[in-house]
Specification:
Blueprint: H1 2-14, H2 19-30, H3 35-42, H4 48-88, H5 106-120, E1 124-125, E2 131-133, H6 134-137, E3 157-159, E4 162-164, H7 170-178, E5 183-192, E6 203-213, H8 218-233, E7 239-246, E8 249-258, E9 275-284, H9 286-291, E10 300-307, H10 308-315, H11 323-326, H12 329-332
Helix pairs in contact: 1-4, 2-4, 5-10
The structure holds phenylalanine (PHE).
């Protein structure tokens, strides 16, 4: 009878798979309502003689079951620990998770380079509002009411006399109004024109430059801008000054540099001319100086303006300005 019980128990022990099952088995045999516990209780119904024999037998069985349970439990425990360690193992040969860094947008980079070059030449940095009064954007810059630049097609009007600035030149006027010469600054910022195609965006960036002092001549203008182009694009780039017209400078020039893409041989980008236009400039029109209360007999100056998008497109051979604003990560990663 107890041999049968022992065999059944051994079968059950050997098929145990987990510590939880082992705990259940222990309860089944040794718990308060367990098989062995019941047998011990039933001893009381036996005669003293029978009880002695049966008692010893059941106690031996109980001890055996306890030992077996313990043995099995410690086996299961170490097996489970081993399994857990294996599952939690860290493969130190796997490559680490790289932290990805962002980087400067190509436009920010061009702007920073331009600012760096001019600050090294002693220019400081000024700013002005993007929503601008008509009188600063046009009138004070000697752009009369009937000038084509004021056409509704080009200018975003907020009201009759408030516009989104169409260039950074109004910053010239704002700074001159506040300060006496000598002046030497650049003014980077956003400008707006109602225009959009592969080379024009309704919002773009310009950097204005202004230098006013006694005895400033066209030679200073040439020296500063040639130095700028050589630092920005390379010391061997040819530069030429072409007569042009701006209402706020006189004389005015457009400045071209040798095409960096075809090395002046002529290509699609320079339209076969070998030259790329990159700056507008000129000697500050005496009328502009008088408008801000400067004595144009005593002071002269030069001014220039350039487009940051245009320089960026040329520098990196990008053929569509919209790429600079779409922020497609596959495009930006290339810089
Ligand atoms: N403001 C002019 C433009 O937007 C550029 C310029 C600036 C020309 C200063 C001459 C002097 O086209």
């Amino acid at each position: 009878m107890s041999e049968n019980l022992k065999r059944t128990f051994l079968d059950e022990v050997s098929s145990l798979k987990s510590l939880a099952d082992a705990a259940n088995l222990r309860v089944k045999y040794l718990g308060k309502k367990g098989i062995i516990t019941a047998k011990i209780k039933s001893l009381s119904s036996l005669s003293p003689e029978e009880r002695r024999v049966a008692g010893r037998e059941i106690n031996e069985l109980k001890q055996f079951i306890e030992e077996e349970c313990e043995r099995k439990e410690s086996l299961l425990k170490s097996a489970e620990l081993k399994g857990r360690l294996l599952a939690e193992a860290i493969d130190i040969t796997l490559p680490g998770k790289a932290v990805s860094f962002g980087h400067e947008h190509p436009l920010s980079r061009t702007l920073r380079e331009v600012v760096d070059i001019f600050t090294r030449m002693g220019f400081d940095v000024q700013e002005g509002p993007e929503v601008e009064l008509d009188c600063y954007n046009f009138e004070a810059l000697n752009i009369p009411k009937d000038h084509p630049a004021r056409d509704m097609q080009d200018t975003f009007y907020i009201s009759e006399d408030i516009v989104l600035r169409t260039h950074t030149s109004p910053v010239q006027v704002r700074v001159m109004e506040k300060k006496k010469p000598p002046l030497r600054f650049i003014a980077p910022g956003k400008v707006y024109r109602c225009d959009a195609d592969v080379t024009h965006s309704p919002m773009f960036h310009q950097v204005e430059g202004l230098m006013v002092d006694k005895d400033i001549t066209f030679s200073h203008l040439k020296g500063v801008l040639i130095a700028f182009i050589h630092q920005m694009f390379g010391p061997d780039i040819p530069v030429r000054f072409r007569p042009s017209y701006f209402p706020f400078t006189e004389p005015s020039a457009e400045i071209d540099m040798g095409c960096i893409l075809c090395k002046s041989a002529g290509c699609r980008v320079c339209k076969g001319t070998g030259w790329l236009e990159i700056l507008g400039a000129g000697m500050v029109n005496p009328k502009v100086l008088e408008n801000v209360g400067y004595d144009s007999e005593e002071y002269t100056g030069f001014a220039f303006g350039m487009g940051i998008e245009r320089i960026t497109l040329l520098k990196y051979s990008i053929d569509d300005i919209r790429l600079l604003f779409e922020n497609d990560i596959r495009f930006l990663r290339q810089f």
